[in-house]
Amino acid sequence: DVVADALATLPRDIILHGRAPEHHLDLRGTRVHVGTGGASPQIVDIETGGYREACLRDIHDAARLVEHLPHIHFFARPMVACDIKEARALDLNTAFACLSGTTKHVITSASDPEHVHDIAAMCFDIAGSRAAFEAAPFLSLNINHVVPPLRYAPDACAVMAAAIEAGLPVMVNTFGQMGASSPVTMAGCLAQTHAETLAGLVYAWAVNPAARVIYGPRPMITDLRSGGMAGGSGEQALLTAAAVQIARASGLPCSTIAGATDSKAADAQSGAEKALCVSMAAQAGCNLITQ
Fold this sequence. Notes:
The chain is α/β, with parallel strands linked by helices. 42% of the residues lie in helices and 17% in strands. It has helices at 2-9, 56-67, 87-101, 113-127, 130-135, 154-165, 186-207, 234-249, 268-283, and strands at residues 15-16, 25-26, 33-34, 42-44, 51-53, 74-76, 105-108, 139-144, 146-147, 151-152, 170-174, 177-178, 213-217, 220-221, 255-257, 288-290.
């Protein structure tokens, strides 16, 4: 009954705003928007061809690039600023680097409820007031609220509550690994993913029945031969599309990650794997496709 009440009353007509009208993201129905994402600690240096630690300037430069790419609709921070060691400074400066680089909708994260208040205060200053931001929210938070299988992550849930209380939209994300932290069959993995994601929606609804929450299933494939993630596999594309179809059947605005690859270079394998998973997520009607 609690789940049914939450699903009956949570908002469905969600629009995530940019700071320019042409960047608004309408999440109603099967409208599809694609963007960046991830948490890479390293980046390939285009001058040397080698890997180095990502830094805050890389995030800002990536945001500036996305600002001018018409087919990338939002900016989810794709890297970790390894040059900032203190957690509050990392969260706040990452949000600032994103917002100063693009007027498109920004998705970032926070590791502590107090950091959420700091990020929200910055957003209110940019918007002119809290009311102006809440009327057109241009930043939302990724929340990984669960530790699969079937356990809430208390720290992440506290961050989610703080974000909702501050009026920030939240991505309710679930990252079960098929064959590792969720059942080895697709059906079992999808059932667990749906249960865990619904649990996050119910938690958000309990904080505020009018919370702007995005159903975010991200089931991943484990290669049972190695124990590693097989993000570029054909099974990954099927699993992602099926998770999106469950969200669509529930009438929920949704997001997922697509575009992972098992290739170690930007080659034909990488392109084929990304094309398969992204296109299947889009054809399934995912509203926000990240990474």
